[in-house]
Amino acid sequence: MTGVPDLAPTPERPGVHVAKPARDVPAHGSYACCCGASGRAQGDDDVRDLVAEWIDHRNTCPHR
């Protein structure tokens, strides 16, 4: 069986990753920036907040 590559962002591969494998399973997500900022969350509401945090960071980070 072939494994799925690790899609988690890193400072070398910045970005955001969100997954919700099924309707009744809580979402989980993470982000990383090349400046070193990062975050992780689990649960639909917390992941929604994480994405908003990533967008705010992306728009204000001097290293983008």
Would you kindly provide a written description of the structure presented here, covering whatever features stand out?
The protein is an alpha+beta fold and 64 residues long. It is built from 1 helix and 3 strands; from the N terminus they run E-E-E-H. The chain has one helix at 44-60, and strands at residues 15-19, 28-32, 38-42. Strands 1-2-3 form a 3-stranded antiparallel β-sheet, with helices on one face. The protein is globular, with a radius of gyration of 13 Å.
Feature tags:
3 strands, about 25% strand, about 60 residues, alpha+beta, single chain
Give a summary of the structure in a few sentences.
By secondary structure, this protein is α+β, with helices and mostly antiparallel strands.
Low-confidence stretches: none
End-to-end C-alpha gap: 37 Å
Amount of helix: 25-40%
Beta-strand residue fraction: 15-25%
Structural class, by secondary structure, is alpha+beta
Largest sheet: 3 strands, antiparallel
Along the chain, the helix and strand elements come as EEEH
Would you count the extended β strands for me?
Answer: 3
The value of Rg in angstroms is 13 Å
Strand order, largest beta sheet? 1-2-3
Tally of DSSP helical segments: 1
Shape by Cα distribution? globular
Mean pLDDT: 88
Write the layout of secondary structure elements.
Elements: E1 15-19, E2 28-32, E3 38-42, H1 44-60
Antiparallel strand pairs: 1-2, 2-3
